[in-house]
Structure formats: C-alpha cells, structure tokens
Amino acid sequence: MAILEKLSKKNWLAKTISLLAGAFYIGQSIYDAHFLDVTMDEGTYLMKGMLYLTGVYKPFQPYGPWTNKMPLAFTIPGLAQALFEPGLRTGRYFAVFLSVLMLFGLWLVTYRLRGHWWAAALTTVMALNAGNITIYARALSQGVTVVVLVWALVFILDREQRLWQTTLGAALSMLLVFVRQNMAPVPLLVVLFIFWAYGRKHGFYALAVTGLIFIGFHWYYWPDILKLWRPHLPGFAADWITAMLAKAGWQTTPSTSNWSTDYGFLTDTFVFFEGVRMNFFAFIGLLTTWIFWPRQKDWKNQLDLKTSVLLSVLVIILTTLHAYASFGLNYCLYCFNGYLAFFMPAGLLLIAISAPYWKKKTGWLPQTLAILVILLACTGIAYGSYQITDEFLMKLPVPRMKNMQILPGSTEIWVFLRNKFSLPYETLQQAIPAAAGLLFGIAFVLIGLLICRLKGKKPRTVSAGFAILLAFLILGTLLSPIKVLGGGKFADYCYSDVIASHETVGAELASQIPPGSQVYWHNDVSPLPLLYLSGREFYPPQLNHWYSFREGGEPNIMLQNGLWNAELKERWIEEADYLLVAEKYVPEFEARENFALLTDELTTTDLTVICRDRSFIHVYKRVK
After folding, report:
1. Which residues neighbour 335 within 8 Å (Cβ) at sequence distance 6 or greater?
2. Does residue 382 sit in the same domain as residue 432?
3. Same domain for 525 and 591
4. Is residue 465 part of a domain?
C-alpha cells in the first residue's frame, strides 16, 4: 500500500503512461486504417456524404440515395471528402483523427474529475482494446457518434459549472441524435442531469438549446426526416406520420426484404459474449460498479454521485435498446459489438468516477454475485471465442478408456467425448471451449478464496468476493490484446495495404470510364471504388448493395425511396454505358441472352482487397 501511495503522487509517471498509451493507440489506429478489410457501410457513408456535400443530391431527396440514417452520419464524413480528395485514404484518416480526438476528450474529462492516474488508466485500457480500435479506425458512424458523445461529456461534467460549457455540452448531445437516431435518449438524460446537478438556470438554457436544435433540424428536413422515426414509434404515432408523409406526396409500395434472419439462441449467445470479450474492462468494470455500489452517505462529492447515476442510466438504456435491436428484432445480429462502440467510453468514465467509492466490504449477496459474474463471464467468453480456441482445446490428449478401464496410450478429448456420449463434432467444438472457460473460472475463484484464507483471520477491510472480482478485472484487462479477448478480430486484417489497393483499382476504373458515363454497379463488398469516379453517374440505390434491394414493389415508387428491385435491375443493365461487375457475379451476367453481343469487356481490375480471393471488378462497355 505504501508503494501505491508513493506512486499516486508521481504525476509525471502518470503523464508518461498516458503519452505512451496514446502513442500506441495512434500507431494501432494508423496501422488498422491501412490493413483492415473494408465494409459496405464505409462505402455508403463516404459515397453518400460526398454526393450530399457536393450538391449532387440532398438527404431524403426523391430518386436519390437511400437516407437510412440521420443526415450528419453522411455529411460529416462527406465534409472530409469535399475538403480533401475523395477516397478511402481520406475517409480512414479522418476516422483516425476523430478516434484520437475522442481519446483526448476521454483523457481530459477523466483527468479533470479523477486526476492523472485514472486518466492514464483509461487511456491504457483504450490502447489495449484492439477490437474497438478496429471499429474506430474505419470510416463508420461509430467514430463520429462517439467523439460527439465524449465531448458532450467533457463540457457537461465540470466542477466549475460554467453556463456556456453545460449549454454547449447539451447542444452536442442533441447533435448526437442527428448523427444516429439510436442515440435519442442521450439529450433527454443530459438535460435532466443538468437540472439536477447544476440548477434551473443551467437546465433551462440546456433545454432551450436542445429544443432549438431539434426543431431546427426537423424544420429543415421536414417532413422527410420523419421516415427515420416512423419504424421506432408505436402504431398510432407511426400511422399519424404515414398519413402526414402521404399528404406531402410520399408513396409506399408492398415489397419484402430478405435481410432479417432468426439465428437461434446459441448464435445470439455467441454474439452477446463476443461483445463482452471485446469490451472486457467495460462490462466487468460496470458490473463491479453496480454490485459494489456505495451507500449514498459514502459519496464525498455529490457531483460524483449524480454523474455516476447519469452514466449508469445512459449505459443501461443504450445497451438495452441496442441489444433489443440485435437480438429481439433481428435487425442486425452481428452488429451488436459495433453498437456498443457508440457509447462504451461513457461506461469507462463511469468506472473511473465511481471506483474510489466502491463498497469494498460487503455481505454474502454481493460476494456471491461477484463470483457468479466471474463464472458466467469465463464460460461465455470462452464460448464466444470458440472459433479461436477450439482447434487447440479439442486436440488435448486424454487417457483411452473402455468399460471404466484405462487403456495404454491416449486420444484427443473430442474423440473420447464423441465415442462416450455420441455427440457431433460441431457440438463439441462449442461445448469444450465453454467447459474449459467454466473450469478456468472455478479454478480462479478457488485460488482467490485460498489466498484470502491464507491471509489469516485479521479484520478485513476488503471482502473476498470483491478482491477476487477486482483481480479478475485487472487480469482480464491486461490480457485484452490477446485473441480470446479484445484482440479477437485479427481475421479482419488483410496484411496488405487496403488503401493502396483501392487507389490502384480506382485509377484503373477512372482510366476506362470517361466522365459523364452512366455506370451500373453490381457488387456485395463495398461501393468504395466508386469514390474514385467523380463526374460519373450512378444508380443511387445500388450504394447499399442488396440491403436496399426488395422483392416486388412498383419500380418508380421504389426508386423514389432510394430502393431497387429486379425490374429496376433489368432496366439499368439495359441502359447503362458501363457495367462494373464483381467476379462472383460474372457467370450470371455472361449467361444472359445476347450479353456478349451488347457489351465488350474492357478490363479486369486488380484485386480490390487482396485478402478477398475474388475481389476483381470486370468492366464492360455497352457497344449496342
């Protein structure tokens, strides 16, 4: 303890750790920007943003791109494209800039409320979490959203209670909604907090500025912006919005999407614990906070209490809403971990603010909950990472047995269990890692209890359950870079420069397709190559690939809403000057009647993404 007390006074050491962790974070981010595989969403945010910022289209414009997110989700990345040259390099470098700005904001607010050492701790946690860095280094809306959220907290959470800061923080919290509508609870919670923590004057200013921004954005995009709220409202409100939009000329047509899939309980569990293992410190730290929540009289500073309540409610509500979207509505199951990235730094801040007040000596119930958390987390994390550990664990040797007799030699454990219980390989592939995780958790708890027991019968200031859970939190955080935890997304790396390969392919396409040409795009990876074709015309619904494709529907109405169907597809193929077709779809096109007579294949590009075996793009020119 004396050593810890001495270290706590050495602020220069904490500053050094912050700088080193920050540099490590920046280095990882830049590396990820160059070597991470691309996603479709990156292409849609950058392409739509560029089209909106350059005035080719406006958000919600009929017959324009599908504006399926709030306008700022597109226009903020589009601003970087407009200021610099369009391309993946600009998009990802801008994402890295936002990510570093977010990290600095998190450091600043933590330092202001908890000092240099906690600021260094959270910076280190962020640097160790390779999984979340992979999200923030891509040109996705998570990076835009989280930087606005963190800086809203920077301005709101200040012991000085300056009016301009709380007002600016409230304004940012409302702008957050117009980046992503799924963050709608944030400004409401922020305004209530400002009333509670800083008084009526601060509260009414916050209410006024958030109200003006809310009204202003809706007035500017009225009534089309209501389309984004309509699916999330109860029936009577959705019907009222539908009627209002219909009076303004909006039309709908019956059609179906094929992108909603029910994966089942086991897959849901796998995805949930993938989110846990990729955010280990946040999840386990938050559970530690709530299990050992201090009594109200133990809070020495009321702003710390109120801030902890705000952040707790914010994290719980946002996690619940996004879990419901992923698991309840089957909206995008594998997006759950990405959804957590929208707000999880707020959870880290909650841990830092509340940790000094944790109730370290407690009764049997909190300690039991702490042990259950460890056992469940170990089992779930092992299950959520079985694709990484299964090959090693399933080949562990065990003695051969027959009729309860041990035979000479050994066999692999999965063979033994298959023969003993007639279990299929796929079941054992998941069950063995989960069982190994449970055994690790049991061993960890037993060792912790033994150590506490060996310390003797002196009066304890810390309960055994608290000490064991805290040790589990520290150990897991230090191990976050390994594949089983936050480093488990190594499969996304291409180990070749993705930015360079896109620039090469973009240059090839630009050399073959003259400005002013009408281009048909048929791909399912990402529309990023289109960024390098400024001055060409595209079919806007294709920017979202098959996510905006519908079965059935009246073509003109579909097109008006930024969607497409089979009839529009056929029409565009017949009228386009150039067709850009991904390698996997070439057989389908070449099998079309008279396709070879009507088109001439000009070239096949280099691989767009080298780690994707068939990411060539075939360029066809219409000749008749």
Report:
1. 326
2. yes
3. yes
4. yes
